[in-house]
Structures are given as structure tokens and as C-alpha cells.
Amino acid sequence: MVYDTICAISTAYGEAGIAVIRVSGDQSIRYVNRLFSGENLAKVSSHTLTHGWIKDYRNNDLVDEVLVSVMRAPHSFTSEDVVEINCHGGIYITQYIIELLLETGARLAEPGEFTKRAYLNGKINLTQAESIMDMIEAKSKNALVVATQGLSGGVAQLISTIKHRLIDIIGVIEVNIDYPEYDDVVELTDDVLTPKIFQLLKQIDDIIEKSQTGLIMKQGVKTAIVGRPNVGKSSLLNLLLAEDKAIVTSVAGTTRDLVEGTLNVRGLLLHLVDTAGIHSTVDEVEQIGIGRSYNAMDEADLVIVVLDYGAKMDQTDQKLLDRVRSKTHIVVVNKVDTPRNTKMIHRPDFIYLSTLTKAGLEKLQDEIIEKAGVASFHKDITYLSNTRQISKLKEARFALKEALVSAQASMPVDIISIDLQASYTALNEILGVEQTESVIDALFARFCLGK
Known about the structure:
Blueprint: E1 6-9, E2 16-24, H1 28-35, E3 36-38, E4 48-56, E5 61-71, E6 82-89, H2 91-104, E7 107-108, H3 113-120, H4 126-137, H5 141-151, H6 154-178, H7 185-219, E8 221-227, H8 233-241, E9 259-265, E10 268-274, H9 284-299, E11 302-308, H10 315-323, E12 329-334, E13 351-352, H11 361-371, H12 387-408, H13 413-431, H14 437-444
Parallel strand pairs: 1-7, 8-10, 8-11, 11-12, 12-13
Antiparallel strand pairs: 1-2, 2-6, 3-4, 4-5, 5-6, 9-10
Helix pairs in contact: 4-5, 5-7, 6-7, 6-13, 7-12, 12-13
């Protein structure tokens, strides 16, 4: 498929040592050659670097000393002729070269258009394209592991395995339709179709369950720290972040609004929210802050309730514990370096911590990993990397479940086949085999310019 020639700055916008300007399309070598002073790029070997200068062809002024790489079709990222200009990383220089390329006939690329062309030209499938964006956005090692699995083809191979097993089931039905002498539908469904569909459902369920872990590793866990005033919520936030993000004083009610931060706990990304202390008050500003604390608690994936080791539990503490009972939560009893209040409840499921001495911090980190449901994360397992993929796999599972119900009810095999085909279509949509143009455009619009 032939497209027009596009160009864009592929490195971050701003001042840097080096900037890369990417050009892709059947005219890319010719367009860059017009600006290039050095060896004729049309004659250089593919996948080589050539030293020279970029000149303004309008007045022959030197613009920059560059290294130009040429990658000829189809052995390039986009499967088209690709030229990359490695110039000095100045804002003016890169914009100047882009301006010259546009005047020679190239078009400024849309966000994600290089990757989109790689997909449309069959260089990568949709799961690999999504994994490229996941790699760019990865904020932890484990998130990067999930992304690289997709880019290396692990997700595509996983889905293809399911597709092949589904094709085998559909094939059984097609044979029955083509050779109707095998007309015992009950025997066919009970002995052949039902066991195969059931086993495939088990495989899909296992993938969906494991992929929820991969999704958490990629997106992180929204975590709210709540408690009464002056129990050490802000100190806990600062301890976890290893920085003085929140103001800490002995004065109750110092935190009146939400304080947020992000940290990496053993490969798990935590989006922390320190909330205003919850208590009864007539102060209008404090009431607003407390209202936001409740909202943060309700919206969080994980809630850390902080109690004071030196104070007895009161109605506010109990109210907080009751409120989070149905949510994933951890109870932290802070200030264990101070004398214990004899009326403080001691329970084995509480985490006893000192934000001053860091005693109990490792146990808290263990509990966070356990409560987040990622203790079973393993880098050798292939995970689906985003909600779109998981949603489509759930669609495939639903259609497969419908086929199983029909088979168990000894429905005609052509009725069963309809649901099986629907499941197959959903699997294809994960890989991008069957996607509308509008869906593809929306997916690649998330990419940065130059990718």
C-alpha cells in the first residue's frame, strides 16, 4: 500500500544533545537528498549512516551537520523507505529542517502515524502497536515487562493459540454440516463439542484472571491514606515517597486538602493520596477537606487506614473501619515508637509501624503487594496489556459461553456455530484483523507525534 511521505520530530521537543527527524514514504530519500550535502543518499546501502550537512536549498545556507540513516523498504519500521536525520537537538534547528522538508513535499505526520503505517502495512499487529505505547508510558520495571511481552509477539501468540483451538471446534461443525450422515446431534455435542468448548473457556478464564494482574502493573493502584487528624498520615506519605511531600507538624488538621504522589513499590505503581484528617468540625474549610477525603476513599482501589498507637480507638476510627470493610484496605497502627494506649486494639491483621524509625515498613510493603493482588505476578507469564484487549477477550468468552449452553441443550449445530463465529471475530479484533477505520484512528491518536 502506497501512502504520501510524512515527517516529524521523533525525539522529545526541547533542547538536547541530539534530535531525530523521521521521514517515511516512497519519496523520503528523494526529499531528504534535496536538503543533504554529502554522498548521494539514493546510492547508499540500506541501514547505513552517512555524514553530511543539511542545507537550505533556497539560498544554499548551511543549517546543521548531521548523520543520516537510510532504511529501504520493506526492511524498515513502517515497511516503507525511511530516512532519519540525526541533527543537533535545538528547537530552532529541528523546526528549520522540518520546514524545509514540508516545502519539498513531505507532510507533517499525525500522532502515531508511523506506527499506524507499520500496522497497516502488516509489519506489526495491533497488540504490538499498543505495546509500543505501553513501553513509552511504562513507569515501572514490571509495567515494562508487560509491554515488551506484547511487542515481542507474546500476546499475539497467546490469542492465536486460542483461535486455532476455536477453529478446530468450528471445523467439527463444518464437517458435520458437509457430511450429514453423522446426524446424531446429541452424541456430537456431548462427546465432541461440549468438552472442547469447556476446555477453551477454562483457558480464557485463566488468561483474563492473570491479565487483571498485568493491567494493575501497567496502570498502578490508586491508594488513599485516611484517618483522624495527627495520626501520621502525612508522615506515612512522606515515608513511602522518601521525600517531604506533605507538611508534617504536631498541630492537628495541618492537611486540609488532598496531597498526591506516585511511587514504585517493588514494581507496583502506587498513586498515593494523603487526605485531610476526618473528625467532627464546624470549620467550613475543614468540612470541605473532609468531604474530599471521603470521596478519595470511595474512589480508591486501596485504602490505608491509619490509627494512633498511643490513643484509644474512638467512634471516628470505627466509622472509618466500617466504611472500608467492603473495600480492599490495610489498617496501619502508627507511632509504635511511643507508649501504647492500653485500650488500643491489637490484631494480627493490623500493620504496626513507626514512620519515625521505619519499623514495620517492609511488612507494610508486603501487605500492599498482597492486597493489590499482584503477589503472583511473574515476568515469564504473558499478560494482555490493556482494557481493550481484555474487554474483547471477555466478548469472546461470552459468545463461547452461549455456544456451550446451546451445545448442552442439544441445539442444532448451525446455531452453535453462530456463537462460535462471534467468539472468533472478537479474538480477531484483539489482533486488529477485523477493525473499523474509526477504531484504528482512535487507537493511534493516543500516540505521541513522531511515533
